[in-house]
């Protein structure tokens, strides 16, 4: 009885990674309660088996208990949407936002080129994210094929319904948006991170986003052409004497709750300067 009482109070980090013939296919991460662990594990398994790019040939599921007192927390970012006419305009919008955060043109070029060409190697997606020095444009992740995989983060169960309610008002109540917001929230909790840029590697999903602490999570309706199966994430960093390994440890391993309900702004069209 006592053992069961301990279990129902605890949380689990749940992580899934799947590949198809040796290449990254999909991944997912969350923090779930004891009661929902079995259901959520099956749901992640299902995702790996029904991905639009194919059925996984290898699936790794990791389950790890977490002590509630070890979980840090931070706020969900504000959400806005920039409507663009085409990919070129979308990438110009992303570039302008990155410049606003002081990311150098050289770092932006590196990020855009690698995202478009395949961040792991030509034609190949990474499983995690690139770390790019916001000034020099140098890639800093220790393993450029794998990248930095952010994990052990989620919305608290008590806040989930409210977040979905807020997203619904703008037609964005999708698991994909919620997961991207949660990931972006944890990434922005790292002081060394200046901004994030992302577009999906799922061929049918062309909306990407930019995120920073000052500008929030900015969806950009088109960052790649439909049918394109290359995508990824970039975290632009300014280490300023901070230890890179500590940043990576935080992103990959620190359990993190995302709190609050996002303020949501109505979509606005992009205007080139
Ligand atoms: N940590 C680091 N990088 C990751 C992670 C993670 N946990 N998950 C995915 N990535 C990287 C990896 O390189 C993937 O190939 C790439 O990001 C894209 O992942 O507001 O669906 O899950 O409408 O395909 C953003 C827009 C959608 C949502 C992003 O990404 C919106 C998306 P995907
Ligand atoms: Mg994907």
Write up what this structure looks like.
The protein is α/β, with parallel strands linked by helices. It folds into two domains: about 10-70, no CATH class; about 75-270, no CATH class. About 30% of the residues lie in helices and about 25% in strands. The chain is built from seven helices and 13 strands. It has helices at about 1-10, 35-50, 85-100, 105-115, 155-170, 175-190, 245-255, and strands spanning about 10-20, 25-35, 60-65, 70-75, 80-85, 130-135, 155, 195-200, 210, 215-220, 230-235, 255-260, 270. The strands form three sheets. It has a seven-stranded mixed β-sheet, sandwiched between helices. A three-stranded antiparallel β-sheet has the order 2-1-3. A three-stranded parallel β-sheet has the order 4-12-7. β9 (about 210) and β10 form a beta hairpin. Bound molecules: pimeloyl-AMP (WAQ) and magnesium ion. Pimeloyl-AMP (WAQ) binds near residues 126 and 198. The site of pimeloyl-AMP has 26 residues, from β2, α6, β9 and β11.
């Amino acid at each position: 009885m006592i053992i069961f009482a301990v279990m129902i109070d605890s949380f689990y980090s749940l992580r899934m990674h799947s590949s198809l013939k040796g290449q990254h296919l999909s991944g997912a991460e969350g923090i779930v309660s004891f009661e929902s662990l079995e259901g959520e594990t099956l749901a992640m398994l299902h995702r790996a088996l029904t991905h639009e790019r194919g059925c996984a040939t290898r699936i790794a599921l990791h389950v790890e208990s977490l002590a509630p007192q070890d979980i840090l927390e931070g706020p969900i970012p504000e959400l806005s949407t920039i409507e663009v006419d085409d990919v070129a305009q979308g990438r110009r919008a992303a570039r302008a936002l990155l410049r606003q955060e002081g990311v150098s043109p050289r770092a932006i070029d590196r990020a855009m080129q690698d995202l478009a060409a395949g961040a792991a190697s030509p034609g190949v997606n990474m499983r995690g994210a690139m770390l790019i020095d916001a000034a020099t444009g140098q890639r800093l992740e220790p393993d450029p094929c794998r990248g930095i995989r952010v994990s052990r983060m989620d919305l608290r169960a008590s806040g989930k319904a409210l977040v979905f309610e807020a997203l619904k008002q703008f037609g964005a109540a999708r698991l994909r948006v919620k997961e991207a917001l949660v990931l972006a929230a944890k990434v922005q909790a790292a002081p060394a991170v200046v901004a994030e840029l992302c577009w999906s590697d799922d061929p049918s999903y062309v909306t990407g986003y930019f995120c920073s602490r000052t500008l929030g999570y900015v969806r950009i309706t088109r960052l790649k052409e439909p049918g394109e199966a290359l995508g990824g994430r970039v975290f632009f960093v300014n280490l300023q004497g901070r230890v890179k390994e500590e940043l990576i440890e935080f992103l990959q391993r620190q359990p993190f709750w995302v709190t609050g309900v996002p303020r949501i702004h109505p979509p606005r069209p992009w205007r080139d300067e």
